[in-house]
Design a protein that fits this description.
By secondary structure, the chain is α/β, with parallel strands linked by helices. It contains 15 helices and 14 strands. The protein has one domain: TIM Barrel. The strands form four sheets. Strands 1-2-3-4-9-10-11-14 form an eight-stranded parallel β-barrel, surrounded by four helices. The chain has a two-stranded antiparallel sheet with strand order 5-6.
Length: 455
């Protein structure tokens, strides 16, 4: 039996997400992001295409590294203005039955106790369709916005994240026992106090003495996404993540990342199948290769190089405005997205330049687009799953909604014909659809915080 391909739409509650400048295309509707009907219609389109979910990126700072200011980001709508993605989810869930929602939340700036309640609430309101993309942040502007002088060092942020996970696991899994909620109207007892427990956590970063405010949600712990590809990020993913988001230009490179994460998971007592890997992909397709290439050429006319550099500068922690076009870039020790710097060095060599970077950003980002007929796109996606061992794709938007309409109308039927894409949704939670079980397995670190079932 061939492996089923999983698909997420990759987007953000803003105007310009990954492919910088394409919001200016006359057919693009992303500037409607303030309209709730834009998002509910979006959700219905994705569910009609049997997408597993929509994966929401988010940042809590601005891209102010290029030229030492946020001017380029503001001019080009480079993920600013940006609104809270969690507030979209209940409306989108009400418009659908099966679509999942992966939402990015930065644990560095979120109080664990209140964040745990917010995720439980979303899990309840979506009927168990919520996932959390765990991030530790990479923008100094975000740190300054919450009163800090700058970011904590890259690896230290993951140390903090390990403790954070321990605390939210205790709240989600160990505070309310299974069976604690009685809803007994005759006796006037909603919950059994003997089965609700106070969490006592005294750690180096966090101290909590409280019971979880929400009753157990369908999944208890949301589906856990993570996107760290640095050495420290990979260890964190192998410990905690169920779905890992990777980027890469070569199948051997991605395969090695996948193998490393899964082997580290096995070393921690988990199974390799406990982790599904989603590759970031940008698809431009048509009925023929020529039609797809024509569309690609049209899209390229709307790309903003300045906006693309503003995004890249912040994600790598390098001010490219300081360098002439062909001057070698000094990467130094970045506290931003370490894997982005490493990936650029691998692809362009140790002495890469601003010109080399711009040459790679053909559609406003470093993610190289897959351009071709539906047949060639389907072939390419299947090849990634067989040759790089990925389980699915986070499809970045280009011109919305037509990029997803095209994919659903042209590529999805071919994937179905080839037996690698579902023809209907399974019932159950997001975790149930992805893994076949509603709760995290006993091999996951969360299990140590569960209380034994009462007699």
């Amino acid at each position: 039996m061939r492996r089923e391909i999983h698909l997420n739409a990759f987007d953000m509650n803003c105007v310009g997400h990954i492919q910088q400048g394409l919001w200016t295309h006359p057919r693009d509707q992303s500037s409607r992001y303030l309209d709730i009907h834009y998002w509910t219609d979006y959700a219905r389109r994705l569910e009609a295409g049997l997408f597993d979910g929509i994966f929401f990126a988010d940042v809590v700072g601005v891209y102010d590294v290029l030229g030492g200011s946020a001017d380029a980001a503001l001019r080009g709508a480079v993920q600013v203005p940006v609104n809270d993605p969690t507030l979209l989810i209940p409306a989108m869930a009400a418009a659908t039955r099966h679509l999942g929602f992966g939402v990015t939340a930065n644990l560095t700036y979120e109080t664990p106790y209140l964040f745990a309640r917010r995720m439980s609430t979303l899990d309840h309101l979506t009927g168990g369709r919520i996932g959390w993309n765990i991030v530790t942040g990479y923008l100094d502007s975000a740190a300054r916005a919450v009163g800090l002088t700058g970011q904590t060092a890259h690896d230290d942020r993951y140390d903090l994240a390990d403790e954070y996970m321990s605390l939210v696991y205790q709240l989600w899994e160990g505070s309310w026992e299974d069976g604690a909620v009685l809803r007994d109207k005759a006796r006037g007892i909603y919950a059994d106090p003997a089965r609700v427990h106070v969490v006592h956590h005294q750690g180096p970063q966090y101290k909590v003495d409280a019971m979880h405010l929400s009753e157990p949600s369908p999944q208890r712990t949301p589906v856990l996404y993570q996107a760290g590809s640095s050495a420290r990020g990979s260890r964190f993913a192998a410990t905690h993540a169920e779905c890992v988001f990777v980027n890469g230009q070569s199948k051997p490179g991605v395969k090695k990342i996948v193998e490393d994460i899964r082997s580290q998971a096995v070393e921690r007592g988990r199974a390799g199948a406990d982790i599904k890997v989603f590759l970031g992909a940008t698809v431009i397709t048509g009925r023929t290769d020529a039609q797809a290439q024509e569309k690609f050429a049209e899209y390229r006319r709307y790309v903003s190089s300045e906006a693309a550099l503003a995004h890249a500068a912040a994600s790598m922690g390098i001010d490219f405005a300081k360098y002439d076009l062909d001057a070698p870039i000094e990467t130094g020790q970045s506290q931003a997205i370490v894997s982005n710097v490493e990936a650029m060095t691998r692809s362009a060599g140790p002495q890469w330049t601003r010109r080399r970077l711009l040459e790679q950003m053909v559609l406003g980002s470093r993610q190289q687009p897959l351009v071709g007929s539906a047949e060639s796109v389907a072939d390419a996606l299947i090849a990634w799953t067989t040759e790089a061992d990925v389980d699915g794709f986070n499809l970045s938007r280009t011109v919305v909604p037509e990029c997803f309409d095209d994919f659903i109308a042209l590529v999805v039927p071919l994937l179905q014909e080839r037996g690698v894409y579902k023809t209907s949704y399974a019932e159950g939670s997001l975790r149930g659809k992805l893994f076949g079980h509603e709760r995290l397995p006993a091999s996951h670190p969360v299990a140590q915080y569960r209380r034994p079932a009462a007699a």
